[in-house]
């Protein structure tokens, strides 16, 4: 008995609440953010921080991360937004989909640095605390792509192939209407969920501190992204024969390894506190 012949795509991507249009994409992103903050806060509290600091830092991190994610996406998919007769307001319509995780990481790092300094927390301590939560947020956020029927992979005959509406603008021209595609959103979601368990287990065994947990996150996520990105067929700028985000993933692995190497050399001992020295002094007064 065959239980699964394909994965159907949802017939709707939003619902109405009075005059407001609520997009499932936005709900997935928001749910992921909430859980990431919750997990980061628990991890910071377990290391001696005051409850609620993760939210304080997130108020800086998330807005700047969203801006960075959108800018990175637009720049690496410029052909989708800049062409003769293009509606340039589409650049701002983020609720329709189109954010880049690596751009979000760059923007988020800037926001986290600002927020951590204001909260008196070491930047790398917060980065380590939030790293598993970022993966959790990515696992949930990818389901937004499912509701938008976007960012799928090559055609496939596998029983978990994804159905895409043939009238979807992203449906490749010339293919039969019943063509199935690799559900790259699902691959990345599963990879990220497994990564959450791996990172938490590594932290329990190895006590990853001084940014090494964040470095491990970058390596793990980027290795998975190398696979899924090479399966995807959505338009992307190509540099030296590779999609932009393939280069981003390669850079992510290298940066993650460099962070681990450098931080271990600079901080061979255990982390005494997540608080900066001046913050500890002010707390003791």
TrEMBL record:
Belongs to the Lgt family. This is Phosphatidylglycerol--prolipoprotein diacylglyceryl transferase. Pfam families: LGT. Its EC number is 2.5.1.145. Catalyzes the transfer of the diacylglyceryl group from phosphatidylglycerol to the sulfhydryl group of the N-terminal cysteine of a prolipoprotein, the first step in the formation of mature lipoproteins. It comes from the Bacteria. GO terms for molecular function: phosphatidylglycerol-prolipoprotein diacylglyceryl transferase activity. The gene is lgt. Its main location: membrane. It comes from Rhodoluna lacicola. Keywords: Cell membrane, Lipoprotein, Membrane, Transferase, Transmembrane, Transmembrane helix. It is a multi-pass membrane protein. The keyword Transmembrane applies.
């Amino acid at each position: 008995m065959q239980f699964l012949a394909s994965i159907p795509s949802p017939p709707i991507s939003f619902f109405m609440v009075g005059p407001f249009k609520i997009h499932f994409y936005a709900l997935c992103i928001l749910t992921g953010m909430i859980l990431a903050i919750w997990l980061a806060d628990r991890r910071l509290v377990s290391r001696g921080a005051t409850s609620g600091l993760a939210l304080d830092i997130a108020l800086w991190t998330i807005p700047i991360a969203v801006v960075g994610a959108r800018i990175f996406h637009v720049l690496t998919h410029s052909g989708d937004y800049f062409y003769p007769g293009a509606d340039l307001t589409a650049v701002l319509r983020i609720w329709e989909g189109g954010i880049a995780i690596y751009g979000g990481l760059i923007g988020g790092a800037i926001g986290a640095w600002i927020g951590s300094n204001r909260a008196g927390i070491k930047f790398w301590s917060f980065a380590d605390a939030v790293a598993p939560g970022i993966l959790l947020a990515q696992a949930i956020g990818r389901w937004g792509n499912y509701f938008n029927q976007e960012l799928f992979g090559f055609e496939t005959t596998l029983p978990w192939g994804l159905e895409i509406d043939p009238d979807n603008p992203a449906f490749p021209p010339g293919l039969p209407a019943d063509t199935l595609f690799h559900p790259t959103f699902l691959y990345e979601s599963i990879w990220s969920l497994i990564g959450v368990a791996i990172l938490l287990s590594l932290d329990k065994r190895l006590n990853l501190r001084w940014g090494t947990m964040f470095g491990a996150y970058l390596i793990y996520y980027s290795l998975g992204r190398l696979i899924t990105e090479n399966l995807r067929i959505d338009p992307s700028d190509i540099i030296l024969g590779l999609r932009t985000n393939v280069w981003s993933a390669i850079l992510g692995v290298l940066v993650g390894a460099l962070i681990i190497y450098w931080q271990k050399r600079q901080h061979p001992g255990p982390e005494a506190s997540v608080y900066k020295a001046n913050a500890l002094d002010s707390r003791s007064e």
